[in-house]
Design a protein that fits this description.
Radius of gyration: 16 Å
CATH architecture: 3-Layer(aba) Sandwich
Distance between the termini: 40 Å
Structural class: alpha/beta
Number of domains: 1
Strand content: 25-35%
Strand order of the largest sheet: 3-2-1-4-5-7-6
CATH class: Alpha Beta
Shape: globular
């Protein structure tokens, strides 16, 4: 696994021995960044960050800042190592906690992100929980995008109108679901 584009292109992503993760494949990652708008100057949130693979790709492609939320200590050290290997010293924040806690912390700070990417464990109902949690937290900028990587067997059920599912792309067992703020809501409902 390596950085596919931008200033750190070709740098290998370190995966610690014994880490039990399902890393986003290079094929899926390349497709994701071909679908997303330019990262130039964007604020990027990487939830369930693992090795930091996706957030680092965003930084390499010009994101102004990336926030990584990861609770596993082995993976936290891997993120730090990967950021250092790729030359990203002061463009990031690492929040060492569970995704839900990280979302609540960022909400209290009134942070807003242009792109939020989440890669929760497959088939544990995290797709729905993550979208619902992000809806309550209001972390998405006005024209922002949420992307959730999940098993194609998991289905999202719209239960409020904060976000709308705008696209889904399947890569083998992996599905990328894209959400945007529902701008059709009445102004007093926002």
């Amino acid at each position: 696994m390596k950085v596919l584009g931008g200033q750190a292109k070709g740098k290998k992503i370190y995966i610690p021995k014994g880490a039990r993760i399902r890393a986003t494949s290079d094929r899926t990652k390349e497709s994701l960044f071909n679908i997303l708008p330019s990262m130039e100057g964007k604020l990027f949130l990487d939830l369930f960050a693992g090795t930091g693979n996706i957030g680092i790709e965003a930084l390499s492609r010009g994101a102004a800042r990336a926030v990584f939320v990861e609770k596993n200590n082995l993976l936290i050290e891997a993120i730090k190592k990967n950021l250092s290997l790729c030359g990203f010293i002061d463009q990031y924040e690492l929040i060492p906690t569970a995704a839900e806690n990280g979302i609540q912390l960022l909400a209290r700070r009134k942070e807003k992100f242009d792109v939020i990417f989440a890669d929760p464990p497959y088939e544990r109902s995290f797709l729905q929980k993550t979208v619902d949690s992000l809806g309550r937290a209001s972390l998405v900028s006005e024209n922002g995008i949420i992307v959730i990587e999940h098993s194609h067997r998991e289905k999202y059920e719209e239960n409020d109108d904060k976000f709308i599912l705008t696209d889904q792309r399947r890569y083998g067992d992996t599905m990328l679901s894209f959400f945007e703020i529902n701008n059709e809501r009445l102004p007093w409902e926002k």
